[in-house]
Specification:
The complex is a heterodimer. Chain A is mostly helical. Chain A has 12 helices and 1 strand. Chain A has one domain. The chains are: A mainly alpha, B alpha/beta. Chains A and B meet through β1, α2, α5 and α12 of A and α1, α2, β4 and α3 of B. β1 of chain A pairs antiparallel with β4 of chain B.
Amino acid sequence: MQPQIEYRIKPPKGISLNLKEIWQYKELFYFFTWRDIKVKYKQTVIGFLWAILQPFLTMLIFSVFFGKLLNVPSDGIPYPIFAYSGLIIWNVFASGMTSSANSMVSNANIIKKIYFPRLIIPMSSILVAAFDFFMALVVFFGLMIYYKIAFTWLLLVYVPASLLLTIISVFGVGSLLAALNVKYRDFRYIIPFMVQALMFLTPVIYPVSIITYPWAKYLIAVNPMSGAVNLMRGAVIQSPPDMQLVLISVASAIVLFFAGLLYFKKTEGYFADIA
Amino acid sequence: MKPILEIKNISKKYKLRGQESPYLTFRDALTSGFKKQKDKNEFWALQDVSFDVYPGESIGIIGRNGAGKSTLLKILSRITPPTTGEIISRGRIASLLEVGTGFHAELSGRENVFLNGSILGLTKQEITKQFDAIVDFSGVEKFLDTPLKHYSSGMQLRLAFAVAAHLEPEILIIDEVLAVGDAEFQKKCLTKMGEVTNEGRTVLFVSHNISAISTLCSKSILLKDGNLIKNDKTESVIKHYLNVINDSQLVWENITRISYSEYILPMKLYITNSDGETIQSELNRNCRYYINFEFELLSIQSELTIGYSLFDSEGQYLFRSLHTDKDENINSTLKIGINKVYSELPVNLLNEGRYQIALDGGIHKKSWDFNPLNQNSINIRIDVYGDFSNSKFWKNKRNGIFAIEEEWVLG
């Protein structure tokens, strides 16, 4: 005999996070993530290698155009590893944002038929993006060996810190966009544009140090991904980034996190009616 | 004993939006601030529905299309919240609003069993434990490691139902899943469902199939326009449904012998199935039906032309059929007194919906006694429902006036 369960189905009132419920559905969360990772590289010849090849090829192109031809400075480290360290963490944000923003619409058939905490859908999309990051990290370490950059304890601090900041911000933006996308399909067209624009507002191809206007520096820091990229680079350059700027990014990530979470929670009850 | 499900004053309101955009566009939201708020079309899909379900009961939910059956199931499955009211549930609910929810074409059969099982609320451990039984039931063990996209639709369906059949919740909610698949498969499903109800599990079952409900459910509730109007033994609910609610009028009878013409006296207009039984319920467009007309011939008329015209629910004239269409000499066999003519009704051309069949005819070139366009025409109303194709994606009304399913061949 199962333990006595009793629950009530009521009109939504207020917002409750119900983390306990998400925990109860951890297996479904796992299965969604597993499905997305599997499907992503199904029927490809080189499979998971794409997760490495994509940022690697982009890095090569950037190194030729920005590093060699345009002579963009790179904070004293070789431009390829400068670009690559920024790229792989930026990719977590870019692909996490795109896929989580579209996740509710692309899983509409399931949402309309079965109940589960809706939040696990954008969450698993973000996890898929993080999975690619870990694959790409292998090449990152390879580049460090190639350029004879010492492995220090800074790696153990800055890389996880950077990833954590990225996940917090992509969760905020992703769940906000996912909820908005269910209601307003305009976001289907806005999102690719956002990815492009945000990439230029993130110091992926250039160092923050080339920004000479002090106010512009703070403005860029409001973009939480600039903090994440600076932390990632800190591990390579082996000197801590400007902590004031990082803190602005952290604050902005936390605001985004709660804004996304609250909006998602507020609207999730009606996803099945309008998706 | 406490009820396992208490449904208390559940209501659900929908806002109606334009047909072409069920979801908002960003522009609507941006401009709505400037526009005067329009009178919003509100629609109550359910109004103040209350009933209790006790452990072990199997409840049928009956009602015409649009009565609120699916909305009720969606609220019970927590897919959409009620607008007002409350449901207290004292057991794990699993809902099967469709078979194979979340199946992914790129994944193998084995992987889909785990994914689908997990979506339906099984734990990984439960799936592993029942895996062999599921595969056995489905009969697709040879193709377990083949991607689902290479499965036939029948195989996909069998695999999906196999997973669903191994759910073990306290409360099982089922919506029309039996409407898909071939006759043999439907029978297998019904047998399995019978087992489930006999095991003492609580089942809520929505179906158009009245006979399935009467075999599987001891009690039923009847919904009409979002209201619960009867909650009783299945037998009496079905009776009520067929006689009272189903306000389609399938028989016209001239009991008081009102005269319409000096040549013939119309007696009865009705529909029968291929066994000759008079039809009292909705018409399934995959079955065969006949329109029957009984009349008294007062004098021999070689120019008699009688038939019917068919209109859709908006009054659009769809077609006309006359008894002399194929055989002009049919009248030579008529006799003074009672006669009956009948003809097959092409329901397989019709879309889901309500139609009016009006008596049409008279004495050719002499007097057109039965004008189908007349306000007082002799008519009956029928309801046709879907079951379009074997695809689970095309069960309901299609676009267009007619609904035709013809084979497509690769040329």
